[in-house]
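worker-03 picked up job from queue 'complexes'. Input manifest follows; two sequence lines, order preserved.
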Amino acid sequence: MLGIVGTVPWENFPLSTGDISLKDDHLMIGGSTVPVNRGTPALMAAAWMTADVIGTSAPFGYLAGDIGRGKGSRSLYNYLAEQLPKSHFQTLTFHYLQPIIHWHERLQAILMQLQNRPFLIADAGYMYVAKMSGKASLYDLFTPDVGELAFLADEKAPHPFYTRGFILHDENKVPDLISRAYRYGNAARHLIVKGRQDYFADKAGILATVDSPVEEALEAMGGTGDTLTGIVSALIDSGIDVRRAAVIAMKANRLAGRYAQPTPATQVMEVIRHIPNALREVIGTTDDAVFHP
Amino acid sequence: MAFFGLLKKKSDRQPEIMSSKTDRGILVFENTTEVIQAETILKREGFEYKVMGPPPEIQRGCDLVIEFPLIEELNILRTLENERLSPLETVPVTNPLLKPVDLFHTKDFGRYLMVRAANMKLTMDKDTGRIVNVSGGGCPDVPYLAYELVGHTLNEAPNPREIGHTLCGYALYLAYEEVKRQCLV
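worker-03 finished. Artifact:
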């Protein structure tokens, strides 16, 4: 089963857990309903749609309300510290959480003690704290955009806000940034880098790239990285090899973006609606055996 | 006074490993009076903090600094400024010579203009003056800021510096100021 951990931008939103479902552009989890716009709800919606298409069970979600003060994230960290030892996830994706090193280290210690350690994916704030902690290599997949890759590549930066200029200038040299991130131990076992061209890489270098279709407007749209992380999380959880899952996800996310006919003002739910068709098309041309009806 | 208690507590502690400090920042003040004022405010507002001696790289200020969770930089600076107190410098503990990002990347989509600062992007409609998208970032105030800003004109929208809390919020504020600079001249 896939577990997804993140936050929503309402301070009084109660800590909610349970199987995720999606109806009328709203996410349902543990009796709570959340509109899908960007952030973790977008990731969860994309993962739910992917699981629905490939015929696997709905993801299990952990959501707390946090507007950046860290209160909701702390309650979620605390809850996970109690619950994860009893969990049986095959895949666990961490997303928008306040980066707090001591909580990250506590959860990592718990995850390392599990008899069957899940496939660990981190994006957004949790990817930041994994790098800040010097524990990036304990993860199986990070999904940065190019700006975040520059942060991973800068061994001195504690947050993207402090990425040094000479590294940010190198954004057109994604392969160099990837190798620099691995050289300093600041990358997960695998990376998916979202950008004008998407990259799948490990410490040996670039393993796959996807560069079409191109929709320039997607760069401005909040949430398209979240959808990519959601799609690949559900694919990996279904048992597909990580490289194939990455390629399918990169292609399907771009195709869903194309189907949405986006402008820079388009909101990500427009893209999410097209994920099922995009996935079916990509899987149909890649490998029918992906389906588990 | 809590200020002296903290100094004593610090001296009793074992040195922490580097990684445990990576999420910490330092506030540097002109004199110890300001340090004490800042400590009083941070304590009252419930922030996590510690008073300590400055690292050797810090060349300015007095012989005490305040350590705080770096991610909360924007929130803490705003809280102090509301009490008319501004540090000389705010720097990461592990690399005090690092400076905040000062590079802006601008992309013109015709009707729309996108500005990126560090990991945050803000896009506005040049015809209507409305903010149409916020993307990038990883701290939990990013979806909150997007929710508060998108759909509003630059003049109506709340300033991310006023409602953001984290370094991602700070980066969005820089992008917001750059968009204003380019569009409202």
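worker-03 released lock.
Chain B touches chain A through 55 residues (CB under 8 Å).
DSSP finds six helices and eight strands in chain B.
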